[in-house]
Amino acid sequence: MKQTHLKTDYLVVGSGAMGMAFADVLVSESDADIIIVDSCARPGGHWNNAYSFVTLHQPSAFYGVSSRELSNGKFDQFGLNKGLGSLATGAEIIAYFDAVMKEQFLPSKRVRYFPMCTYLGDGVFKNSLTGEVFEVMAGKTVDATYLKTSVPSTHTPNFDIAEDVSFMSLNDLPKINRRPEGYVIIGGGKTGIDAVLWLLGIGVDPDAIHWIMPRDGWMLDRKNTQADISFFNDTLGAQALQFEAIASAHSVDDLFDRLEASGVLLRLDTKVKPKMFHGATVSQAELVKMRLVKNVVRMGRVKSIGLNEIGLDGGAIPTGPGLVHVDCSASAITNLEPTAIFQGDMIIPQTVRSYQPVFSAALIAHIELVKKTEREKNALCSVVPLPNHDTDWIRLMIPFMMNQYNWSRDNDIRDWLTQNRLDGFSGMVRGVSPDDIEKQVILDRMKAASLPAMAKLTQLVGQI
Ligand SMILES: Cc1cc2nc3c(=O)[nH]c(=O)nc-3n(C[C@H](O)[C@H](O)[C@H](O)COP(=O)(O)OP(=O)(O)OC[C@H]3O[C@@H](n4cnc5c(N)ncnc54)[C@H](O)[C@@H]3O)c2cc1C
Prior knowledge:
Number of strands: 20
Largest sheet: 8 strands, mixed
Radius of gyration: 23 Å
CATH architecture of the largest domain: 3-Layer(bba) Sandwich
Number of domains: 2
CATH superfamily of the largest domain: FAD/NAD(P)-binding domain
Bound molecules: flavin-adenine dinucleotide
C-alpha cells in the first residue's frame, strides 16, 4: 500500500469545532504550516451526525472560529428563544465550518486537509477509503479529539431492548410517519430537553410524553449568557450574583439555594433536588414549556425495555407497543478526565473557561504561539473540568476564576480577549464607560465578591 511522508509544523487531529478553532488561530496569528486530519468527510465533528432540529444551546455570537462571524449579531424574533441571540442550526454550523475550510484555510496554502483519514498515533494516519498511509513529521501534534463528544446517532444504549420494541435514536424521531400513542423520552440532559421541546413545538399533547429522568439537572438561564452589551446587566449581573452567592454561602446546599434564588441556576421542578450539572442552557420560555410535561419518571437509569415494561434502577413502569421509545441517553461529553494541555510536542485542548470549548481551543492556540515555556503555558491554562455532578459546579469555579485572574494580569492576553469574538464577555467589560454608574456598580460588586468567593470555594470543596 502506498505510503506518503509529510512534514508540518502542526498536525491537528480532528476538524470538529475545537480543532477548527485551534487551527484558525494558527492560520491568523502565525505563518505555521498545518495538516488537519479527520475520519469524517467534512469539518464540523459531531455536528455532522446531529438530529435535524439541533441548534446551539448558547448564542452563535461566540461560537465557531475567531476569524469569522456566525450570527452577524442577529436576535431571534419568534419562538422560545425570542429576544435572545440567535442559535445556529446544525446545518448552519456545518456550512460555516465548510466555508472556513474552503474559503480561509485552504486558500492560505498553509493548511493541508485530509478528510476520511483516521489518525493511528505516532504521526501516522490512514485514508479509510484508499488505504493510503501517511507518516507525518510534525513539530507538534494537537489532539483535538480529547473530549470524545458523543451524540445520539453514534451512541450505543447501555440497556437491553427487547425485539419488536419501538425504539429509536433522536435522529429518527422526525421520520415518524404514523402517530404513536405516546412517546417515552429516555434521558434528562440537554438532548432529552431538545426532544421534549421539539415534540411540544410540533403540537404533541404534553400528557402523551413520558420523560425518564435518571437525574434532574441544574440548568443555566440563556438570558445570562448573552454577549451583547444590551444584556450587560443579565450576563455580568449574573456573574456578580454568583460570586456573591458563593461568598455568602454557609454550606453546599445553602450555595445552591442562593444560586437558584438569584436566578443563576434553574431547575425543572423546584421540589426535586438536582444531582447533575452539565451546563445545559435554556431560556425561561423553554423552562415553562418543559414544565407542561407531568409524566416525569424519576426511578433511576433504564436497565431494560420490554414490550410491556421498562425496567429501571428503582423498579418498573408499564409501557406498550403503541409507545415510541426515544434514546436521549448519550452524554455529550464522555471524557471527564482532565490532563495537562501542553505536554512536550503534544497539545491537548480542553476547556479553560467553563462550557466554552471553542473559546478555549482558540485561546490555547494563542498561548501556544506567544508564550515560551511549557510551564508558563500550562500555568495560564488550568483545565476547567467538564461537570457531571451538581457539586462539580463548585469544583469548576476554582480553575475558572483562577484562569480569569491570571489572564487579567497578562497584558497580551487581556488585549487578545478583548478583541476576540469567541470571548464575548471581556470586550463587554472593557467597553463600559466610567460614567455608566449602573454598569460600574455591577463590575464593582464582581470585584468585591471575587476574593471572598475564591476563599469560600476552597472551603466548600472540602465539604463535598
Ligand atoms: C446538541 C449540542 C449542542 C451544543 N451546543 C453548544 C453551544 O451552544 N456552545 C458551545 O460552546 N458548545 C456546545 N456544544 C458542545 C460542543 O460539543 C462543542 O462546542 C464542540 O462542538 C465539540 O467539538 P470537538 O471538536 O471537541 O469534538 P467533535 O465535534 O467530536 O470533533 C472531534 C473530531 O475528531 C475526529 N476524530 C476523532 N478521533 C479521530 C481519529 N483517531 N482520527 C481522525 N479523526 C478523529 C472526529 O471525527 C470529529 O470530527 C453542544 C454539544 C451538543 C451535543
